[in-house]
Design goal:
The chain is an alpha+beta fold. Helix content is 27%, strand content 9%. The protein has one domain: Erythroid Transcription Factor GATA-1, subunit A (Erythroid Transcription Factor GATA-1, Chain A, 2-Layer Sandwich), CATH 3.30.50. Strand 1 and strand 2 form a beta hairpin. The radius of gyration is 22 Å and the shape is elongated. The N and C termini lie far apart (79 Å).
């Protein structure tokens, strides 16, 4: 008889352990609530990859934009 060991992972949102298997439709999250909280953070742009802005990028991208208030 072969036994399969359950794979437990930490929920990225609440940090509880949850089973990572086909039976957990919310994997790697523990619940629909945690999955929706994470989706909301993506949708509201809370997650971002920090990028250093270079001066030449600003000069190149905004040469035709007028920022003065009228």
């Amino acid at each position: 008889m072969e036994t399969t060991k359950k794979r437990l992972v930490t929920c990225p949102n609440c940090k509880k352990l949850s089973e990572y298997s086909l039976s957990n439709t919310f994997r790697p999250f523990c619940s629909e609530r945690c999955k929706m909280i994470d989706l909301g953070l993506w949708a509201s742009e809370q997650y971002a990859i920090p990028v250093e802005i270079k001066e030449e990028d600003l000069e190149q991208g905004f040469t035709d934009v007028n920022f003065s208030r009228q």
